[in-house]
UniProtKB/TrEMBL annotation:
Gene3D superfamilies listed in its UniProt record: Ribonuclease Inhibitor
Organism of provenance: Trifolium medium
Protein name: Protein TONSOKU-like
Lineage: superkingdom: Eukaryota
PANTHER family named in the record: PROTEIN TONSOKU
One Gene Ontology cellular component: nucleus
InterPro entries to which the protein is assigned, alphabetical: LRR_dom_sf, TONSOKU
Amino acid sequence: MASIISQGMLITLTFPSPFSLCSLNVENCSITTRTIQKIADALDSRSVLSHLCIGHNSPVSGNALVNLLSKLSTLKRFSELNMSGIKLGKPVVDGLCQLAGTLTLSGLILGGTCIGNEGAIKVTEPLLKGTEELVKLDLSY
């Protein structure tokens, strides 16, 4: 059971083991670092999550995002991540590179994350080495 506190409301989610949710969209829901950490804590290598949208939520700490990316990189089916509008630092960019190098991603949405040209190049390098076609890539400012 995971409890999420968002906008002053307590949301309790019960997931059978393994985490059976395929897609989670909490974009622009005013979720916080604690919520991101709860999502990461609920994931394990047996989870079937394939799509995650956490964009336009702040403030979210880099450590929680790094933990989340580390968990996502262990998932066999994970293929699409949207972090648009969240300011990302170097440790998170490094985590994204690991994720992109480990998994076959069909979508990576990072618009408005302020990763800059260097971060964009760093993240796309492992994507170009993949054998699958990347369908969605957003690196807009």
